[in-house]
Each structure stands twice: as C-alpha cells, then as structure tokens.
Amino acid sequence: MARSVLSTATSLRLRLGDVAVDLIESHVLLPDGTVVLAVDAMSRAGGLLVAVRGRPGAVRLDVTQLIPVAVRSRVRARVRVLGTARRFDPASLESCDGDTLLSLLDLPPVALWVIEPVELGLTRDGGETTVDISAYRAARPDPLAADEAVHLQRLAQQHSDVLDQLATLVDPALTTGTARVVPIALDADGIVLRTEAPDRHTDLRLPFARRVTAGAGLADELRALLAEAARHGIPGCARPR
C-alpha cells in the first residue's frame, strides 16, 4: 500500500531537522521506489539538502492519503519515509518507463534530488507498521490507484442505483437507520463501502472474485457483484474492515 500512497500523492511534507516545507506536485516515484524531489536550490530547504546529502536517514518525508470523496474521517493512511538525499543522476532515466519520464518532465524546473528510503512506516486503522524496504522496492502500486478517485466519485455522484444494489450485500443490521452508503476505497481486490449515520459509520469490504488488472476487469467485477445482489437479494458476506 505504501507504494500506492506515494505514487498517487499530489503533495508531501519534507522535514530536514527542525525545518518542514510542504511540496505540492513536486515529487515523482521511480520504478525502484526512490523518491525524486524538485526543490529550489536557493530556498532554505534546498540549502539543507546540500548540507545533509549522503547522510543516511537525514531526510524525512510525510505523506497523508485522504479518502477522495466527501465523508467524515477522511484520513485513510499516512506514510513516513526516512531517507538519504543525493543529487539526481540523469543516468537513472535509462531505467524509467515512459510514464515516469513524462512525470519527471512535469516537475517544476528546479534542482532535482533523489531520496533513497532507509526506513518506512505505514499508519492505518489506528496502528503503525514498519515496511520492509526490500518488499517496498519490489512492490508496485495497485493497478487502480491512479484512477481510484475518478471511479469512486463517478459511483458516488452518478450511479446511486448501483450503490443501492451493492448495499444489499451488506448485513442489514449495519445499514438500518443509515443515512447513506458511500464508496470510499477501490483496489484490485475489492471495493469498500461506508455506511454513514449521523452518529457513527462502518466500513465494509466487498471482495472481487478475481483480482483486477485493468479498467475492463473492474467493470466485469462490479457486474459480478451486482449479479450476486440480484440473485440473492439478501445479505452477503461483507464484514467490517
């Protein structure tokens, strides 16, 4: 999940000792998980990066991932990265795919730095776990991560009938008296619905029968869930997350 959070975030907080600066649309994730930052060399942060370059763990990056629809308690996950700052080496472009190259070209025209992660923490559901760096580097973002917000917003705003049908797969005890049902997460393995009442909410996951690898696969799996709802018309196996 950490790779998905870092790859889709539009902003992050760069911490260098007691100095913190928010960078907006100023980072890119390379295929091996290294973070590229665009930082003005004449800024205080730029000067501090020069001072700490090569020092293991001297740079901290904080990223907060929000649920991309309007609900309460929108923070989904936080990622904390301790890393080593180095000057960006143009030779690394040879290992980048076309999408990464285009993303690098879209960065602000200032000095580029790479942050090589040495320690990584992921906070979600109220607890923090340490992510193995080798596993992080070997992982890839979820196939739906880049377009998740678009899919969720479309479901929430244009397809209330679909949500009503999906809600029949949820235990009625959890939806009785609920003001609304909102889709709050979507990944290659399933969709998460939130039943939201005035004084509480519950998140429930509806798993796909098969892992989605492309947009067309997503449509197939959503149709399969709707078909299940139509066949049974009774609560399915969704459980609180």
Give an overview in words.
The strands form two sheets. Strands 1, 2, 3, 4, 5, 6, 7 and 8 form an eight-stranded antiparallel sheet that branches. Strands 9-10-11-12 form a four-stranded antiparallel sheet. The protein has eight helices and twelve strands. The protein has 241 residues and is α+β, with helices and mostly antiparallel strands. The longest helix is centred in the C-terminal third of the chain and has 18 residues, at 215-232.
Short description:
The protein has 241 residues and is an alpha+beta fold. 29% of the residues lie in helices and 35% in strands. The protein is built from eight helices and twelve strands.
Helix and strand arrangement:
Elements: H1 2-8, E1 11-16, E2 19-24, E3 27-29, E4 35-39, H2 44-52, E5 59-66, E6 75-87, H3 98-105, E7 111-124, E8 127-130, H4 133-138, H5 148-158, H6 160-167, H7 172-175, E9 180-187, E10 190-197, E11 200-207, H8 215-232, E12 239-240
- H and E order: HEEEEHEEHEEHHHHEEEHE
Summing up helix and strand content along with how strands pair, one would put the structural category as alpha+beta
- Main pleated-sheet profile: 8 strands, antiparallel
Low-confidence stretches: none
How many β strands by DSSP? 12
Average predicted confidence as pLDDT: 91
Helix proportion: 25-40%
**C-alpha Rg (nearest Å):** 20 Å
Shape estimate = elongated
Q: What is the overall number of helices? A: 8
Could you give the distance between the termini?
16 Å
Strand content: 35-45%
